[in-house]
């Protein structure tokens, strides 16, 4: 088991030759670096689109679905962001790879429900991009349970996780969550609200920990409360992490990734010990 990128993501070395990846980028330097890195890491032959016409032609020329697009914000022939709008309108999962960035641009990007954005401002940019691509291509293996009595909150979290390609189940109560966990032992992460009418997040976590340890299920608690002691109480109840609403998308995704990375590392160590 190897590690990928700079975050310590565990990578099995699996190849993704069947994935159709489009790179919409006019820089010869970056297209060359991306093509070489994705080929050597994942055996992926990317399709390079150096302008907006190339991008449209690449989509039209084949009925094979595009697995993922990596796109600069501006391309020749689409100097005002039309390429990104085009990809989003086609519901093609997209990672933005850009050298132009400021807070207002970040807000516009996140509003478009992109998968991720990577800045070209450091020597690790292509490695960070490769890691983001690998996460997207493998996230479907992770089954995440969302527990919240608010339909709006469930829908918001579910849409965020599905954007990142996770499999998602939802429960409107603590008791329903226990039923779903019993029927789906492949769930590796649960995100639960604290304040629920039947079983609150603390009690739900305590009941789960009586049967399922952190080596099988990671638990992130969430709350809109301003009570800073909730995080301590939740961790003492057996939770692994805690976040206050409203979330920042990047932090939310990072916390999810960190917990799942930890779960995979624990499971890998347990397998190695069992073999030894």
UniProtKB/TrEMBL annotation:
It holds the Pfam family Response_reg. The keyword Protease does not apply. SMART domains: REC. The modification 4-aspartylphosphate is found at residue 193. Signal peptide: none annotated. It comes from the Bacteria. PROSITE patterns: RESPONSE_REGULATORY. Keywords: Phosphoprotein, Transcription, Transcription regulation. InterPro entries: Bact_response_regulator (IPR050595), CheY-like_superfamily (IPR011006), Sig_transdc_resp-reg_receiver (IPR001789). Residues 20-135, 143-260 form the Response regulatory domain. This is Response regulator. It comes from Rhizobium bangladeshense.
């Amino acid at each position: 088991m190897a590690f990928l990128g700079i975050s310590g993501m565990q990578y099995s070395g699996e190849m993704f030759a069947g994935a159709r990846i489009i790179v919409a980028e006019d820089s010869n330097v970056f297209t060359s670096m991306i093509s070489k890195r994705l080929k050597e890491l994942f055996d992926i032959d990317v399709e390079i689109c150096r302008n907006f016409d190339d991008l449209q032609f690449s989509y039209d020329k084949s009925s094979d679905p595009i697995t993922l697009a990596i796109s600069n914000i501006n391309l020749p022939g689409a100097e005002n962001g039309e390429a990104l709008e085009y990809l989003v309108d086609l519901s093609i999962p997209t990672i933005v790879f850009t050298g132009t960035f400021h807070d207002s641009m970040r807000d516009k990007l996140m509003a478009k429900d992109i998968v991720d954005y990577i800045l070209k401002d450091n020597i690790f940019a292509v490695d960070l991009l490769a890691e983001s691509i690998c996460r997207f291509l493998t996230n479907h293996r992770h089954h995440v349970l969302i527990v919240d009595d608010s339909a709006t909150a469930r829908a918001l979290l579910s849409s965020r996780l599905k954007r990142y390609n996770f499999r998602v189940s939802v429960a409107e109560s603590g008791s329903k969550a226990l039923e779903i966990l019993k029927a789906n032992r492949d769930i590796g992460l649960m995100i639960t609200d604290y304040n629920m009418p039947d079983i609150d997040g603390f009690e739900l976590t305590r009941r789960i920990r009586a049967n399922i340890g952190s080596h099988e299920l990671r638990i992130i608690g969430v709350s809109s409360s301003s009570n800073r002691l909730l995080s301590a109480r939740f961790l003492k109840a057996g939770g692994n992490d805690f976040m206050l609403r409203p979330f920042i998308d990047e932090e939310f995704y990072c916390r999810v990734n960190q917990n799942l990375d930890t779960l995979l590392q624990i499971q890998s160590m347990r397998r190695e010990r069992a073999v030894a």
